[in-house]
């Protein structure tokens, strides 16, 4: 379990945030976040305010990464690159999450290392990580300002013969009778994806393609491809029945069921390449894996 309890005894009353900063060397922002997430206790009672005066038995719940051998595939002084397997969270959902990519990030790179972006649980491929707080915001801005080009390798149903630009607005789905989290909607946010075919497989009637999102909407590639009749093979949410999606989310589908109902035992979506300029250098980082 990556979250552990650290115990202390405070002899002289002191403000909670000051204690964290002065004695445990937390930054003001990190100290406030710890308190806001209810991971700071005084005599087994939650500390709710940074200004709260504390004394006596103190418990802090902190994240301590454990490794399963997933190392960075590239790193320099500013950032590192991980190859995330499919069906792995990049970040723990809560303190009961047994393992996520963040475990490996903290284990290999230290407590200042931070995710620069995220990819879905079911998606495999490249994840960029800043190695120190002083580089974190600058690296995150590459994604926020869309100055980084992401390329995904995808396998879809049916044949795609030529390049396509899908320009359809997307909106979060409010329909409780659907498992699709995002839908195409005329009042949604602008979403654009460029599609390039790589190879068509006649036997399985599937096409391997490259997808380059020009915007960063939730499930953008998955929704866009399904909207033009080319559902991603293995997608458990888009282009399948409510019943199958429900069973998938309840973890009731075996690998054989996934192959039967979804076309594959995993989502065939892989973050293949990142291209960007940083610190006067052009980077073209490619995944060592392929679908």
Automatic annotation (TrEMBL):
* GO BP, sorted A to Z: enzyme-directed rRNA pseudouridine synthesis
Record bears the keyword Isomerase: yes
Any GO MF annotation of the entry: pseudouridine synthase activity
Tell me which CDD domains the record gives: PseudoU_synth_RluA_like (cd02869)
Family annotation (Pfam families): PseudoU_synth_2 (PF00849)
Has the keyword Manganese been applied to this entry?
no
**Which Gene3D superfamilies does this one have?**
Pseudouridine synthase
Which UniProt keywords are given for this protein, alphabetically ordered?
Isomerase
Q: Which reaction does it catalyse?
A: a uridine in RNA = a pseudouridine in RNA
Q: Which residues form the Pseudouridine synthase RsuA/RluA-like domain?
A: 79-226
Q: Which InterPro entries match?
A: PsdUridine_synth_cat_dom_sf, PsdUridine_synth_RluA-like_CS, PsdUridine_synth_RsuA/RluA, RluA_PseudoU_synthase
In which family does this protein belong, per the annotation?
Belongs to the pseudouridine synthase RluA family.
Q: What is this protein called?
A: RNA pseudouridylate synthase
Identify the species of origin. uncultured Campylobacterales bacterium
């Amino acid at each position: 379990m990556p979250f552990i309890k650290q115990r202390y005894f405070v002899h002289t009353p002191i403000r909670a945030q000051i204690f964290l900063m002065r004695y445990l060397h937390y930054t003001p922002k990190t100290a406030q976040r710890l308190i806001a997430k209810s991971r700071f206790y005084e005599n087994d009672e939650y500390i709710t305010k940074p200004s709260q005066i504390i004394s006596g038995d103190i418990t802090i719940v902190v994240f301590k990464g454990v490794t399963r051998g997933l190392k960075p595939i590239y790193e320099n002084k500013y950032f590192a690159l991980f190859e995330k397997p499919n069906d792995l969270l990049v970040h723990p959902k809560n303190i009961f999450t047994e393992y996520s990519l963040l475990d490996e990030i903290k284990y290999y790179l230290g407590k200042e290392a931070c995710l620069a972006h995220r990819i879905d649980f079911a998606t495999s491929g490249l994840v960029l990580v800043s190695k120190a707080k002083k580089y974190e915001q600058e690296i995150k801005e590459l994604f926020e300002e869309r100055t980084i080009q992401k390329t995904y390798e995808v396998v879809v149903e049916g044949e795609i013969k030529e390049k396509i630009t899908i320009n359809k607005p997307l909106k979060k789905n409010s329909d409780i009778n659907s498992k699709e989290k995002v839908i195409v909607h005329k009042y949604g946010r602008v979403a654009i994806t460029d599609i390039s075919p790589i190879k068509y497989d006649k036997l399985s009637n599937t096409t391997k393609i490259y997808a380059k999102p020009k915007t960063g909407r939730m499930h953008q590639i998955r929704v866009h491809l399904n909207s033009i009749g080319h559902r991603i093979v293995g997608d458990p949410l888009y282009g399948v029945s409510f019943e199958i999606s429900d069973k998938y989310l309840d973890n009731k589908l075996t690998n054989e069921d996934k192959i039967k109902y979804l076309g594959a035992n995993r989502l065939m979506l892989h973050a293949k390449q990142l291209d960007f300029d940083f610190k006067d250098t052009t980077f073209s980082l490619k995944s060592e894996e392929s679908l």
